[in-house]
Amino acid sequence: MEEPPTSPETAPRVIYPPPPNVYWVVLLAAQFAIAILTVILFPKPYWNLVSTLLCDIWVVYLCLWLHKLDARFMSIFWFAACIALQIAITFPSSSPPIGTGITVVAAILALAGALTWIVTIYVIRAELHIHYNVREPVGLYLSGVMTFFFSFLYFQYHLYKIAQLRERNGDRPFYYQGGPPLTLPDS
């Protein structure tokens, strides 16, 4: 016997992994705690590197979660480049005798690291928009200015609210009004 073709209404709904359900203030407190513990436990030349890498753990987790949503998302690769540049920046600046050549290399690495960081946060913003406005349409809007200044705390602010709504509503669809409506170009 032939089965009738499935209509879009009866097609199985894709269940995506829930967003990280962590309140943004907890992330901020963790960043302060990491900074304090780094000052207490590590020598001064390594403070910046250690605290940055420890805070990067959350970003790696967020990028891996996004990569789990869609394997084509590229934020994890951009962030890997960002981490490599963070490590490379630390070594020239930690050596005591600084010559002109090493200063130029350190400045170029620092500029590349800052640009890679900015690209990474905007790639993550775009991936969140794609997921929460196309695949799982809940109406997420992330401000470009707020993304620049608060990046991952801002993302987590919205992801926490979406996680809470998703928890309350279960499988029922919901609309998150996280800002003005976003219009995506037709693909």
SSE order and pairing:
Layout: H1 24-41, H2 47-69, H3 75-94, H4 100-135, H5 144-169
Helix pairs in contact: 1-2, 1-5, 2-3, 3-4, 4-5
Largest β sheet strand count, sense and barrel closure: none
Please compute the radius of gyration using only Cα atoms. 21 Å
Described by the principal axes of the CA atoms, the overall outline is: elongated
The average pLDDT value, as a whole number, equals 85
- How much of the sequence lies in strands comes to under 5%
Unreliable parts: none
Can you write the helix and strand succession as a string? HHHHH
Q: In whole angstroms, how far apart are the ends?
A: 38 Å
Give the % helix.
55-70%
Count, helices: 5
Helix- and strand-based class? mainly alpha
Description:
With 187 residues, the protein is mainly alpha-helical. Helices cover 66% and strands 0% of the residues. It is built from five helices and no strands. The longest helix is centred in the middle third of the chain and has 36 residues, at 100-135. It is elongated.
Task: Provide a compact summary of the structure.
The protein is mainly alpha-helical. It has helices spanning 24-41, 47-69, 75-94, 100-135, 144-169.
Please tag this protein with its features.
mainly alpha, 187 residues, 5 helices, single chain
